[in-house]
């Protein structure tokens, strides 16, 4: 428990330190001047920004109908700002490299090299693979409990009492990784809020699920009593992030607390109950704890693509496969126990 407590403290300190350096690049006067000139002229040196070629007031009258729609014009402005920031960032980083200076963050992110539309290609690809891993894991769990394991004779429902809860978990996981992939592809205010909100919703629900499973809460009334306070807090937190202030520091504290809390609950429960698949669970807990260190020891992207955050996304892929393996083993174990009681 002490080790996990120190780990959570290190995570918090790491993100607080990162936040202090988050605006070093975009606070640079040369970078700001470059972005302002680019948005005004639509070019940086020999590079022309196709999204900055016209403003709201000079749309050609005979242009296509969608080019005159406000939402299209807003999209153009967002892409213009994004393109200008990217090219000015790369220009400044080239200048800094020639002077022997280390890379700095711009708007809270390291200077990544784009690939087509992907702003952070490694993180986007690894997020998509995580999405696929969760889909395969959830699908194999669905086939197991619905077609391979025996059903209750009268109701034709599964013996496993937590089937529905794990189905919801699978859907929330796929939703979170979907928006993670979108956010790392194109970073806008909307995609950022959807990514953060989905991640908080998943962490909150998985924390609830860890308590329901480890305390073996079966009846609906007790589940509501367990879930209501956490669900209310998570909902309030999501509303706060979206409609009041996107506070990165506070959000990180909330996420770390829920994440470390459920890891502790699972690890202790596996040891106390001597679950037959406890070694799978302990491996996941230990792996997730180690992967958090990647978020603490943040570093610039190697070759312009692979930073600590993208490697964290990579590390969660095999852990996802092992996690769903534990869930399926738990379903088989509980089904066997309940069938013996029935006989």
TrEMBL record:
Pfam families: Per1. It is found in: Endomembrane system; Golgi apparatus membrane. Keywords: Golgi apparatus, GPI-anchor biosynthesis, Membrane, Signal, Transmembrane, Transmembrane helix. Its main location: membrane. Residues 1-22 form the signal peptide. One of its GO terms (cellular component) is Golgi membrane. GO terms for molecular function: hydrolase activity, acting on ester bonds. The keyword Signal applies. The keyword Transmembrane applies. Belongs to the PGAP3 family. Involved in the lipid remodeling steps of GPI-anchor maturation. This is Post-GPI attachment to proteins factor 3. It comes from Iris pallida (Sweet iris).
């Amino acid at each position: 428990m002490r080790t996990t407590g120190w780990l959570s403290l290190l995570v918090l300190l790491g993100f607080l330190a990162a936040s202090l350096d988050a605006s070093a690049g975009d606070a640079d006067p040369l970078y700001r001047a470059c972005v302002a000139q680019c948005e005004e002229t639509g070019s940086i040196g020999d590079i022309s920004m196709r999204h900055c070629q016209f403003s709201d007031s000079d749309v050609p009258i005979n242009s296509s109908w969608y080019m005159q729609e406000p939402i299209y014009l807003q999209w153009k402005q967002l892409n213009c700002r994004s393109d200008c920031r990217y090219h000015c960032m790369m220009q400044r980083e080239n200048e800094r490299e020639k002077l022997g200076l280390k890379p700095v963050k711009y708007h809270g992110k390291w200077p990544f090299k784009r690939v087509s539309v992907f702003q952070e290609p490694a993180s986007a690809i690894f997020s998509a693979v995580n999405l696929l891993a969760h889909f395969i894991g959830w699908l194999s769990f669905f086939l197991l409990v619905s077609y391979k394991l025996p059903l209750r004779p009268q109701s034709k429902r599964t013996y496993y009492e937590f089937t529905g809860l794990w189905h919801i978990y699978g859907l929330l996981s796929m939703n979170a990784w979907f928006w993670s992939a979108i956010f790392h592809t194109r970073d806008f205010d909307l995609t950022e809020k959807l990514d953060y909100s989905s991640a908080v919703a998943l962490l909150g629900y998985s924390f609830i699920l860890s308590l329901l499973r480890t305390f073996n809460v079966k009846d609906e009334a007790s589940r509501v009593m367990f879930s209501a306070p956490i669900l209310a807090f998570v909902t309030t937190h999501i509303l706060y992030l979206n409609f009041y202030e996107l506070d990165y520091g506070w959000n990180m504290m909330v996420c770390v607390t829920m994440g470390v809390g459920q890891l502790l609950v699972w690890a202790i429960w596996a040891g106390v109950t001597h679950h037959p698949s406890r070694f799978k669970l302990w491996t996941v807990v230990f792996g997730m704890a180690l992967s958090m260190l990647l978020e603490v020891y943040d570093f610039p992207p190697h070759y312009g693509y692979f930073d600590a955050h993208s490697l964290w996304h990579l590390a969660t892929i095999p852990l996802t496969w092992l996690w769903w393996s534990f869930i399926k083993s738990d379903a088989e174990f509980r089904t066997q126990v309940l069938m013996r009681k029935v006989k």
